[in-house]
Specification:
With 212 residues, the chain is α/β, with parallel strands linked by helices. It has a single domain, classed as NagB/RpiA/CoA transferase-like (Rossmann fold). 39% of the residues lie in helices and 20% in strands. It has eight helices and ten strands. The strands form two sheets. The chain has a six-stranded parallel sheet, with helices on both faces. A four-stranded mixed sheet has the order 8-5-6-9, with helices on both faces. The longest helix is centred in the N-terminal third of the chain and has 19 residues. It is globular.
C-alpha cells in the first residue's frame, strides 16, 4: 500500500539514482526489503564468490542465509573459529567477485559516506572486490556531506557502539566525543564521490527504514 512516506521515498530515490549515474554508480530503487533481496540475487551470477561487511541492513534482508542456500562461494567470517581465520577471511573478501555492505549515509547528490573501526568494509568499497553492492534504507539519506558526517557521528556510530558493547564516550552521552579510545569504531572515514570503474559500485535504495 502506497503511503505519503513511500511516495516521498520513491521521489527522492529517483533523484538520487540520477545523481549516482553521473558518478558512474549503478543504482536501483526497491520499495521493500523483500524486493531488495531479490534484486541482490539478480545482480550476482551463480558460482560467484561473495562476502560482506557487518550490516544490520543486510541482516534484516536475511540475504546471508539466502546466499548460502544457493550456488555461491560464500566467505562468511561468522563461521571462523579463531582470530587467525577471521583475519584471513577479511583478506580473502578483498578479492571476491561481489562484496555486500550498507552505507552509513547517502547524500541527495549521490555521495556515500562511511566510517569504520577496523576498516575492512571501507577498504573493500574503495578497492579489491570486482563488484560492490550497497543496500541502504531511505532513512540514511541526508542533504549533503556535512549532514552525512553529523549522521555518522551522532546517530550511526553511537548506536552501533552500543550494539557492539564498546566503551566509548558516545555510549554514555549519545553523541560523538571525537575520542581516541581503543574501542573507537570511528578510525576511518571515507567519502565516495564517484566510481573510477563505471558501475563497479551498485547501490540498492530501499523505501523502508533499515539499519542505523
Amino acid at each position: 500500500m502506497s503511503t505519503p512516506v513511500k511516495q516521498y521515498y520513491a521521489l527522492q530515490g529517483k533523484k538520487i539514482i540520477e545523481a549516482f549515474k553521473k558518478r558512474n554508480i549503478e543504482a536501483y530503487y526497491c520499495s521493500t526489503k523483500e524486493e531488495a533481496s531479490k534484486q541482490i540475487l539478480q545482480l550476482i551470477p551463480k558460482n560467484s564468490s561473495v562476502s560482506w561487511g557487518g550490516s544490520m541492513t543486510l541482516k534484516a534482508l536475511h540475504i546471508q542465509q539466502k546466499l548460502q542456500e544457493k550456488s555461491y562461494d560464500v566467505l562468511d567470517r561468522s563461521l571462523a573459529k579463531t582470530p587467525q581465520e577471521i583475519e584471513q577471511l577479511y583478506h580473502d573478501a578483498l578479492s571476491c567477485d561481489y562484496y555486500l555492505m550498507s552505507s552509513n549515509a547517502i547524500t541527495l547528490d549521490g555521495k556515500l559516506v562511511n566510517t569504520d573501526g577496523t576498516g575492512n568494509r571501507v577498504a573493500a568499497l574503495i578497492y579489491g572486490p570486482k563488484n560492490v553492492i550497497i543496500v541502504a534504507g531511505m532513512n540514511k539519506v541526508v542533504a549533503d556531506e556535512n549532514a552525512a558526517l553529523m549522521r555518522v557521528k551522532n546517530q550511526a556510530a553511537p548506536i552501533n557502539a552500543l550494539r557492539l558493547n564498546k566503551n566509548t564516550p558516545c555510549t554514555k552521552t549519545g553523541k560523538c566525543g571525537d575520542c581516541l579510545s581503543d574501542d573507537s569504531i570511528c578510525a576511518h572515514t571515507v567519502i565516495t564521490r564517484m566510481s573510477r570503474i563505471p558501475n563497479r559500485i551498485k547501490v540498492i535504495l530501499v523505501g523502508e527504514s533499515l539499519g542505523y
